[in-house]
Specification:
Shape: globular
Strand order of the largest sheet: 1-3-4-5-6
Number of strands: 6
Structural class: alpha+beta
Largest sheet: 5 strands, mixed, barrel
Radius of gyration: 20 Å
Length: 262
């Protein structure tokens, strides 16, 4: 969901039009991820597959977007194989894996579970879905490809942090940068420069870092890199850099606008 759409529902001010985020040069780990072609998913048929607490089978839905834990994803399902998948899920646990894909770079192996929280079946067997992001996962083996992808996955979690107070302070910095981006964006679009209120909404740093990542809709590969990180502090720091870079861009644009208006 775009930043403007999220803020429309979470603040009293009218939603700003946010320009594409301007991402500075990534850190080494993120840069390496973005330069590499995402690993292609290869099908491995394995006899006597056994589920465990850590490894499960999950149907996959490749999409040209990145889903984050806690984010809301509306979908219209019309392709036959995914209608088949939804018919199956509606009689089971309503969960499937969303993985990012595009024609140029292929399909990634880290995604997020989407849980169907509301659905409508149309007369022609299409579906309207409202899904919510849940756990992150990494694909380890592709079990089958027809009629739709089913993979063996392991769950991903952020490593525990020993500096909880510093993490909270970093999250507050990121929130302030988001508010500044909104304020300047409103100004550039001729809207009142109202201060956005309580973007964190009492969220802990980790879910807040996912919320921030979900707003960078114009930069899916940056979003994918953020999704794959397993450290909350690193994710928040990277988001702070992106927001600061965007803020610098907006400040320069506002200065140019003021010059031409004077």
């Amino acid at each position: 969901m775009a930043l403007s759409q999220i803020l429309h529902s979470s603040t009293s001010c009218s939603s700003p039009v946010i320009p594409q985020f301007h991402c500075p040069k990534p850190t080494c780990s993120i840069s390496d991820q973005r330069r590499r072609r995402p690993p292609s998913l290869q099908c491995t048929h394995r006899a006597n597959f056994r589920n465990s607490d850590d490894i499960v089978e999950l149907p996959l839905f490749p999409l040209p977007l990145v889903l984050f834990p806690g984010a809301i994803l509306p979908l219209q399902v019309f392709e036959f194989r995914y209608r088949m998948m939804m018919n199956t899920l509606l009689h089971t646990d309503l969960r499937f894996g969303v993985i990012y894909t595009d024609a140029a770079m292929g399909t990634t192996d880290v995604g997020c579970v989407g849980e169907v929280i509301k659905h409508e079946r149309l007369f022609d067997d299409r579906f309207f879905l409202i899904c919510k992001g849940q756990e992150r996962f990494r694909v380890t083996k592709l079990i089958r490809t027809k009629p739709y992808l089913v993979a063996e996955v392991v769950w991903l979690e952020d490593r525990p942090s020993s500096a909880a107070q510093g993490l909270d302070a970093l999250a507050n910095e990121v929130e302030m940068n988001m508010k500044d981006v909104i304020r300047l964006s409103n100004r550039l679009n001729g809207k009142p420069e109202k201060q956005a209120q309580d973007l964190r909404r009492n969220q802990f740093p980790t879910p807040f870092s996912f919320f921030v990542g979900s707003t960078f809709e114009g930069a899916p590969w940056e979003q994918q890199a953020l999704l794959e990180l397993e450290d909350t502090a690193t994710r928040l720091q990277r988001e702070k850099e992106i927001l600061r870079n965007t803020l610098n861009y907006l400040s320069a644009a506002a200065a140019v606008k003021d010059v031409f208006q004077s």
